[in-house]
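Give me structure tokens for this 328-residue protein.
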Amino acid sequence: MDPVVDKAEIAEKESKSELSVDLNSKIEFKKPLSRNQEKKLKRLERALQNRAEKRKKEREIRRAKGKQNYAVVEKMNGEKVEIKRKDLKKNLMANSPNKLKIVIDCSFESLMNYSDINHLCKQLTYCYAANRRMEAPLQFYMTSCSNRTRELLERSGLANWDAYIHNTNYLQVFDEIPKQNIVYLTSDSPNEIQEFDDNKVYIIGGLVDHNHHKLLTLNMAQQNQISHCRLPIGKFIQMNSRPVLTVNQVFQIICKYTECKDWKTAFVSTLPKRKKAELLDNEDEETDKSDSDNENSLSKKVKKIESNEPKKDDKNFNLENEEKTVAN
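Here you go.
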């Protein structure tokens, strides 16, 4: 065979093979896409379009997780500072200069239903969190903590709490303290507390009753022959409803007062807006009292003057009339 002819045949074969490959590739490209392939393409387009927003959200989530490692702590001067949660472990009750004893009495479980016990456990966790964030934590106790209340709190990490947890009653826990130094805080008491004493023990009733059990804690304090008093809400705050607060609200008011030593700021910073509490102007009250005192003093003076005036008897009056007639 002629070598020239062989080369031509080889070139034709190569061109045919290239054409077949090109044709096959074009045919494959023109094939219609299936529904799944179309969905995948649309998802890919959406992902490419939303990639920037997704990355931004991921960064925000990472920042939020980083902030979870920090807790806001309020200092004695009212300044709020963020510190690491690991540092809170060093802020223990044993190292605190604040030796005020606050006890939550959890002996009312039989008077509450299942949901009320759950609410009480949430309030107890709020109390513990508030105490942990204090610069000088209180001495936090829980007595009669058993049954359902203890089970729910153990799910919240009760074993790791920096608190004094007792299954027994507060009278048994503080049997060495005189009964007059055990004070039950109840809104039904006629006595108002002015200052807290570190030598005394203050009890808060752990009860979610929705105002169903009035005078319960007061009667209990009187039966146990211990002291009782209430927070001085009426002096500084006017409430439209009965001045009954939740367990965590009372505890937070005490925490705030021990820091700032001012009842008004303690009430205002703790009471929620739904209570519709209004501040009382003590200055206006003092001026009203002074005005009323002045009026009373003036009225007394007038009465004294009237009493000192000489009274005309009937006999003297008749004598004067006779003298007048004789003169005439």
